[in-house]
């Protein structure tokens, strides 16, 4: 998890995103226990209710599940689902606007592909 929160979004949402990032990055695996509400709240010095809200978002989205009295665990298929959703977001947020601008300035697909291929491995 990253070390600081920013002012752009509610903290519970950032906690949700940090844990989701850990799942995507392979730092948390399917079936693995997510740090407890107490551990996260102490580490980041945030209210337990705020952490609980972030963990509940993970559970409600199906990326995690609760075991009563034990904790919250990464759900089966969570990484695959998160990757699929983020790829779709990547297309909508970056690729689609890039292609629209390319068309607007009359770039060919070959020119766009060449630019991407030149920078992809850098």
Automatic annotation (TrEMBL):
The UniProt record lists the keyword Transcription: yes
Origin superkingdom: Bacteria
Molecular function (Gene Ontology), one example: DNA-binding transcription factor activity
Matches recorded under Gene3D superfamilies: Winged helix-like DNA-binding domain superfamily/Winged helix DNA-binding domain
Ranges annotated as spanning the membrane: none
Pfam family, one: GntR
HTH gntR-type domain span: 9-77
Name of the protein in its database record: GntR family transcriptional regulator
């Amino acid at each position: 998890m990253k070390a600081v929160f920013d002012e752009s979004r509610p903290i519970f949402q950032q906690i949700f995103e940090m844990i989701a990032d850990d799942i995507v990055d392979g730092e948390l695996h399917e079936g693995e226990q997510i740090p407890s509400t107490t551990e996260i709240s102490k580490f980041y010095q945030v209210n337990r209710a705020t952490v609980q809200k972030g963990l509940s978002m993970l559970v409600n989205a199906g990326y995690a599940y609760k075991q009563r009295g034990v904790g919250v665990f990464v759900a089966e298929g969570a990484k695959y689902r998160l990757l699929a959703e983020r790829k779709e977001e990547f297309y909508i947020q970056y690729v689609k606007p890039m292609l629209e601008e390319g068309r607007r300035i009359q770039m060919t697909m070959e020119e766009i592909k060449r630019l991407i291929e030149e920078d992809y491995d850098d």
